[in-house]
Amino acid sequence: MGTTLREIAGHLGCGFEGDGGVLIKGVAAIKDAAEGDLTFLANPKYLKELSTTSASAVVAAPGVDVGTLPVVRAENPYFAFSRVVVMFAPKKKHPAGVMEGARVDGSARLGEGAAIYHGVTVGPGASAGARSVLYPGVFLGEGSSVGDDCVLYPNVVIREGVTIGDRVIIHAGTVIGADGFGYATEGGKHHKIPQIGGVRIGDDVEIGANVTIDRGALGDTVVKRGTKIDNLVMIAHNVVIGEDSIIVAQVGISGSTELGHHVVLAGQVGLVGHLKIGDGVQVGAKSGVSRDLEAWQVYSGAPAIPHKNWLKVQAVLPKLPELRKQVAELERKIALLTGEKD
């Protein structure tokens, strides 16, 4: 079984060149592709590997020379290929209803076609929307809601007072709605401040494994529509993350910091609290952010500075030992000329 390249191009709304009748049975990277596979070329550095690939066809941008391979032409080959992957990805079917071993409170509400696996706990007044899937070990706290077509993988914990939109994916081990890290210090002791806010997760958000998103101290912690969060990210109380942002692994965002839309935080970025990060900001890996950042700028370093300035700093750093010697030698010569002693 398979589909022709012509049919794939039609599905994508793209043109093709070469044998449109070639049968495509799967998808693979250039190096791993076998006969019957469709591959893609998005990065020019892999162009030379097309001459040795066993793929039957390729997705590439207009004007790229792919030799004799049949090709689907797409302005964004990576995105087009991702849509083909969806076509070939296995479609998992979930048995609707509550399985034996699940504990669903009598006041909870389940949408049509929701799948509640064994070991799931759904608390009083909580709800899971139509066709949503709660895998074994999921805990859905009192009054919390999960929208339609969501997937919560094993051992996800959704504490009380959390609202999750539609088509949200949450990977294993993530905890949403734990207490924020809030204490008042008096007499040398730290006194816990009750965290009485909630968490709101917008539609089409994906949250990786072992992420922690704390509930608000008073208002809500908010992750807006379309944002994608990688594994092992920490989001503190009352943080607001704007639409379609990308938060990469091991990022830490301190309390009450607000991110605009389309912000990108690379791996291990750390942000102190109460900052304003403008729309479209990009922050390089391992950067430390301690001040507000202007919209549509790129920053790197610790403390984070404009990326172009950071590149200049990095170019100078390896030369510092030699520069130190040169300065010391100049100081010595000046001392000799002026008659001053070292």
How does this structure look, described?
With 342 residues, the chain is an alpha/beta fold. It folds into three domains: 3-88, Udp-n-acetylmuramoylalanyl-d-glutamate--2,6- Diaminopimelate Ligase, Chain: A, domain 1; 97-307, Hexapeptide repeat proteins (UDP N-Acetylglucosamine Acyltransferase, domain 1, 3 Solenoid), CATH 2.160.10.10; 308-342. The protein is built from four helices and 40 strands. The strands form six sheets. The chain has a twelve-stranded mixed β-sheet with strand order 8-11-14-17-20-25-28-31-34-37-39-40. A hairpin with a 4-residue loop joins strand 39 and strand 40. The longest helix has 19 residues, at 320-338. The radius of gyration is 27 Å and the shape is flat. It starts with a strand and ends with a helix. The mean pLDDT is 96.
Averaged pLDDT:
96
Number of strands: 40
CATH superfamily of the largest domain: Hexapeptide repeat proteins
Task: Count structural domains.
Answer: 3
Q: Give the helix tally.
A: 4
Strand content: 25-35%
| CATH fold naming of the largest domain | UDP N-Acetylglucosamine Acyltransferase, domain 1
Q: Which residues sit in consecutive blocks of at least 5 with pLDDT less than 50?
A: none
Q: Per CATH, which architecture of the largest domain?
A: 3 Solenoid
What are the defining features of this structure?
Udp-n-acetylmuramoylalanyl-d-glutamate--2,6- Diaminopimelate Ligase, Chain: A, domain 1, twelve-stranded mixed beta sheet, alpha/beta, 3 domains, UDP N-Acetylglucosamine Acyltransferase, domain 1, 40 strands, 342 residues, ten-stranded parallel beta sheet, flat
